[in-house]
UniProtKB/TrEMBL annotation:
Protein name: Haloacid dehalogenase-like hydrolase family protein
Organism encoding this protein: Forsythia ovata
Top-rank taxon, per record: Eukaryota
One Pfam family matching this protein: Thioredoxin_8
Membrane-spanning segments: none
Amino acid sequence: MSECTGNATTVPEFPKLDWLNTAPLQLRRDLKGKVVLLDFWTYCCINCMHVLPDLEFLERKYKDMPFVVIGVHSAKFDNEKDLEAIRNAVLRYGISHPVVNDGDMYLWRALGVNSWPTFAIVGPNGKLIAQVSGEGRRKDLDDLIEAALLFYGRKKLLDSRPIPFRLEKEKDVRLLTSPLKFPGKLEVDILNNRLFISDSNHNRIVVTDLDGNFILQIGSTGEEGFS
């Protein structure tokens, strides 16, 4: 880790930006004492979607440790800067970690990022530990995070107090009251008076008659899974 050599880059503070799933966070205030994984992504990048299971794996593995994932949304095109569009992507893909809308790519430029997705691991003192890009980096990230937690834990620089989040899905009345969650495709069977609804984020197909009366469901009622 570059921190061990004494020449680590200091990660700049988050500017005043819009946040999702949390109140605004500061590296040297709220995230001090945490190992932070910055995920530079944009919702129209399929590779960024492919790494979501890796992030979920890391969040589960280190859920009781001073470790936080921050999604740094860095739009490739102007239309991707819209906060409501990013919020819908957070809801659609079940993202449960904080997301900051860095529409002007301030952090992207400051850290020399040049591709989506890129991951930057930041130590509890705001120093850059490592930076890697692309898919298929779960083991690399896991190893780096584990080593960082061990390294800083021995130095007694970690703070295990949790950061309170307020997830967007808990604030959206539509998701709390609707029986469907981001339905995708429809298939109509006129001859048999049936409608098939792909209820994407419940990971199931709902079958109704053409008047909308429930007949049966096929599959799970759990959250969407990624393969």
